[in-house]
Write a structure and sequence with these properties.
Layout: E1 8-14, H1 35-46, E2 50-56, H2 61-70, E3 74-77, H3 89-99, H4 108-115, H5 117-126, E4 134-137, E5 153-157, E6 171-172, H6 175-189, E7 193-197, E8 202-210, E9 214-216, E10 220-224, H7 237-241, H8 243-248, E11 251-255, H9 263-277, E12 283-290, E13 296-303, H10 312-319, H11 324-336
Parallel strand pairs: 1-2, 1-3
Antiparallel strand pairs: 4-7, 5-6, 5-7, 8-9, 8-10, 8-12, 10-11, 12-13
Helix pairs in contact: 1-11, 3-4, 4-5
């Protein structure tokens, strides 16, 4: 069901500390950390919608009261964590569902299935989609490598996003490194770890928009032009977010070229299947590896990815013929059309 006309949109995002209902975020909106919030608000106002901004940290009371006072038609959900925990974004979605206000992006089911890297891989493996061999190493349990998992191995937090907890030390080649990295995640980050076989290949990002009808945008790729040929190449936190590091190693995101005949369509078809299997709504980005034999390997699903104008989702949408304000409007329309998940 397509919505048109002016809406009352409450943009809900994260803050670094407790907030008030009428808090002024104009200072934060001028910073790089709030680029997405600023871009979304500007687009909503360009589209003619009435909008307001609420930051949340550790209390749902401020959300309830803001909704009571502002009476939004739609919540634009930019919440990525709650009480500092990335896994709690699903609980905020659940809270919106209980309140009965339409909101953008995935609901509780899609967030739960997608953002636990072990659950998503188990589901997709069952449906004959290739995923890396993996094992979950639970916090508080003895650390050992199962014999079926062979080196090199890649180790990361089970439920984090944006490459948090991923560094060069995530790539391990012996048992001592394996134990050290798992313990680092357990003790420093306080959460479970996932260890999986390292897949050598191209790092691809595929953006998908829709609920029942899915639109797959042009494929992006992270390139490592200055990293030696025999070195592992993956999206560490620095490789994604540290501009000086990216420049030093020639890391850049660009549209994927040189795909063999039929490969692009296979990737898009696979991503539509994954989107539905993981019960995702609204929009998502998938991280894949493409091996030298053109085998597609699922790495991660990212429902509700970053929406700033300069990030991969919006860049792909623009290349696919959807300018930024129109993309934001489509995401709003999809919030009204939700049906479960």
């Amino acid at each position: 069901m397509k919505k048109s006309g002016k809406e009352r949109v409450l943009v809900v995002c994260n803050s670094t500390g407790p907030t008030k209902i009428d808090q002024d975020f104009s200072k934060e909106l001028r910073t790089e950390d709030w680029e997405t919030e600023n871009d979304v608000l500007k687009a909503l106002r360009t589209l003619g919608h009435d909008c307001d901004l609420l930051g949340v940290f550790d209390s749902t009371d401020v959300i309830t009261e803001k909704i009571r006072r502002y009476c939004p038609n739609i919540i634009f959900n930019l919440v990525e964590r709650f009480k500092g925990e990335a896994a709690y974004d699903r609980d905020i979605a659940s809270f919106f569902e209980l309140l009965g206000v339409p909101f953008t992006g995935s609901g509780t089911t899609g967030l739960t299935l997608s953002k636990n890297k072990g659950i998503s891989k188990k589901i997709l493996s069952y449906h004959k989609i290739r995923v890396p061999a993996f094992v979950i190493l639970h916090h508080g349990k003895p650390v050992h490598r199962p014999s079926r998992l062979h080196f090199p191995i890649f180790i990361k937090p089970l439920s984090e996003e944006a490459s948090l907890g991923i560094s060069q030390a995530s790539f391990v080649e012996n048992d001592d490194q394996f134990i050290e990295r798992v313990r680092f995640i357990h003790e420093t980050m306080g959460q479970d770890a996932i260890a999986e076989e390292y897949i050598d290949g191209r790092e691809l990002y595929v953006s998908v928009l829709g609920n029942k009808q899915l639109r797959v945008f042009p494929i992006r790729e992270m390139k490592f032009s200055q990293v030696p040929e025999d070195e592992p190449k993956f999206a560490s936190y620095k490789a994604k977010w540290d501009k000086a590091y990216r420049k030093r190693w020639g890391i850049r995101n660009q549209f994927a070229g040189g795909l063999t005949e039929g490969t692009e369509e296979k990737i898009k078809k696979l991503c539509r299947k994954i989107y539905r299997l993981l019960c995702i709504r609204g929009y998502a980005r998938f991280d894949l590896r493409l091996t030298s034999e053109d085998e597609i390997v699922f790495i991660e699903a990212n429902p509700n990815p970053i929406l700033s104008e300069c990030e991969d989702f919006a860049v792909s949408a623009r290349k696919g013929g959807v300018p930024y304000p129109q993309m934001i409007q489509k995401i709003l329309n999809l919030s009204v059309a939700r049906n479960g998940y």
